[in-house]
Amino acid sequence: MAVKVHVTSVIQKVVDGQREFDSDGATVGELLSNIDRQYPGFAQQIMAADGKLHRFVNIYLNDEDVRFLDGQETALSDGDTVSILPALAGGAR
Amino acid sequence: MPQIARALVEELIAHAREELPNECCGMVHGRDGAAVAVHRVTNVAASPYRYEMNPLQMMRLERARDESGETLFAIYHSHVASEARPSPTDVRMAFFPPGEIEREPMFPDTFYILVSLVSEPPSVRAFHVRTGGVVEEEPIAVIEA
């Protein structure tokens, strides 16, 4: 499935500074693997050593958080937009 | 030195008060080194001790900056019961992955503005977070209209 990928800030740095690029995959997980092949170092930036997505990386299919869909198993369709966004967080504690 | 108009400082304080009991958060856009607009962002953590900005709203603001030529002048949030200074969590979260303080911070050129509601009037202060987790205060120059 051909999809458009949107990224910001620190994740943008590992995809040659682009904010938007084309990739493909049948599921979100497959898409992430394909992006890592296109841009080596990508997976290392967004995943912990155990291969799980960092808690502070958010992935949206169109405008839906994939945590509320099927996570990395979420199926993709041609023309979908996937946004991979680092969290911006903090607080007094 | 961060230059911020009085009206924008008042907007930050108003947001902090309206979001009570929780922390507020958002972004200040800039142009030519001065703040020009305050953009509120939803705190999805909805907590008195934590904030996490809605990532889609952040992305939309980034797109808006691309189109307008504005810059990310500051990232702001409130502390409802502690001083206007980045907490250890704030410093950890200024890096990606969180806590990797020997890397370059996520937003090296952006001020972190803290609004504290502990004092009256509230305190508004700006900082840079540097590699190594070093916090440097950047005294705000409030521009009177």
This entry's quaternary arrangement is: heterodimer
- The proportion of strand residues of chain A reads 25-35%
DSSP E strands of chain A, number: 6
CATH class of chain A: Alpha Beta
How is the biggest beta sheet of chain B arranged? Answer: 6 strands, mixed
Strand count, sense and barrel status of the largest sheet of chain A are: 5 strands, mixed
Amino-to-carboxy terminus distance of chain B: 18 Å
Strand line-up across the major sheet of chain B: 3-2-5-6-7-8
Helix content of chain A: 10-25%
Full CATH superfamily name of chain B: Cytidine Deaminase, domain 2
Number of domains as seen in the coordinates of chain B: 1
Class computed from helices, strands and strand pairing of chain B: alpha/beta
The CATH superfamily of chain A is: Beta-grasp domain
Q: In angstroms, what is the radius of gyration of chain B?
A: 14 Å
Q: How many distinct domains of chain A?
A: 1
CATH fold node name of chain A: Ubiquitin-like (UB roll)
CATH topology heading of chain B: Cytidine Deaminase, domain 2
The H-and-E topology of chain A, N to C, reads as EHEHHEEEE
Shape of chain A: globular
Average pLDDT level of chain A: 93
* SSE series of chain B: EHEEEHEHEEEE
Describe the structure.
The complex is a heterodimer of chains A (93) and B (145). Chain A is built from three helices and six strands, in the order βαβααββββ. In chain A, strands 2-1-5-3-4 form a five-stranded mixed β-sheet. The model of chain A has no long low-confidence stretch (mean pLDDT 93). Chain A starts with a strand and ends with a strand. Chain A is globular, with a radius of gyration of 13 Å. Chain A has helices at 9-12, 28-38, 42-46; strands at residues 2-7, 20-24, 57-61, 64-65, 81-86, 89-90. Chain A is an alpha+beta fold and 93 residues long. Chain A has a single domain, classed as Beta-grasp domain (Ubiquitin-like (UB roll), Roll), CATH 3.10.20. Chain B is an alpha/beta fold. Chain B has a single domain (3-143), classed as 3-Layer(aba) Sandwich (Cytidine Deaminase, domain 2), CATH 3.40.140.10. Chain B has helices at 6-19, 55-68, 88-92; strands spanning 3-5, 25-31, 34-41, 51-52, 71-79, 111-116, 123-130, 134-137, 141-143. In chain B, the strands form two sheets. Chain B has a six-stranded mixed β-sheet with strand order 3-2-5-6-7-8. A two-stranded parallel ribbon of chain B has the order 1-9. Chain B is globular. The two termini of chain B are 18 Å apart. The model of chain B has no long low-confidence stretch (mean pLDDT 96). The A-B interface holds A 6, 8-10, 19, 45, 48, 54, 56, 58, 60, 63, 83, 85-93 and B 23, 25, 45, 47-53, 55-56, 58-59, 62, 66, 75, 77, 79-82, 86-87, 89-90, 92-94, 96-98, 106-107.
